[in-house]
Amino acid sequence: MTANWRNITVIAAVVAMYSIVAANWDWGTIAEVITAVATMAAVLVAISTIWEKREDDRRANRLNRINQQLSQFYGKLFILYETGMRNWCSFIEQHGNDSKIRPREFVRFFPDTENEDSLPPPTAEQLKVYRRWLTTLFIKTNEKMLEVIYANADLVIGKNRPDVLIHFAQHVASMRLLQITLEEEERKEKSGAKSKILNDWREYVKIIAPYPDNIGHYIVACFEVLKGEQEKLLSTPEPPLTEVQIAQEIKKVQDGKAEYWNKEELIVRAARAQSYRPQPRPKRKWWRRLLKRG
């Protein structure tokens, strides 16, 4: 309850006192009535003050938790994810075969082994560069993200465990295994033995657990919603959202981002003749067909 509500309570008590006095109810002398009404008003003011204090404490606690979630968890994940994504796009631009067109959220290095895919497979030289980037950048960034997740699991938004974080942990574990396997194979080649894994991209894909494509949507959505709620609590008197309500807002933002990028991927892939899903051939406008015939 805000100070405005407390003022309204006091005014209502005064009006009630005046009504009682004006009606000349036989509740005793006027002095006794005034004393009783004043006592009632004091009680109401005390109750409103206590309620206001509880609301202020709740607001402060929510703001404190949001600050912790941003500074210790989702803010760090956001920076690390953004850094990792930029490193990945830089690698693809320099050494990959995938589309160089932005948006960046779906650029890949390995072809899809399950579906028909027009993405050219990486060469032996490209795989060699990939191993270098894997060791120096990709693994380290993913490890830092995983450390943040392990150290701050209590700051996860909502009641349920986000499956995307579990899938990311599985992916990082598989990348560790891939790194160890590749290092062993490189040592074999240095000793004179021939490796069947280093130059075969399919062997890489067998070891790597799928990277959760929606982890970026999740991290960005969490960061944006929490920053918005933090700004609201700092600059407006609006009541804070509960943890469950924040989780619902994040789900809406996350789903919206996923839907948007899924559509964008199909558009860009089709434009680059890299359609990984069957797409209907766009119809030409009638006047273009007429000009084509002419």
Q: Concise description?
A:
This protein is mostly helical.
Structural features, described:
The chain has 294 residues and is mainly alpha-helical. It has helices spanning 3-23, 30-95, 124-151, 163-190, 201-207, 215-235, 243-271, 286-293. The protein has 2 domains: 4-48; 61-286, no CATH class. Helices cover 71% and strands 0% of the residues. α6 crosses α7. It is elongated. It starts with a helix and ends with a helix.
Write the layout of secondary structure elements.
Elements: H1 3-23, H2 30-95, H3 124-151, H4 163-190, H5 201-207, H6 215-235, H7 243-271, H8 286-293
Helix pairs in contact: 1-2, 2-3, 2-6, 3-4, 6-7
Report the β-strand fraction as a percent range: under 5%
Biggest β-sheet: count, sense, barrel? none
Unreliably modeled segments: 272-282
Order of helices and strands: HHHHHHHH
Shape: elongated
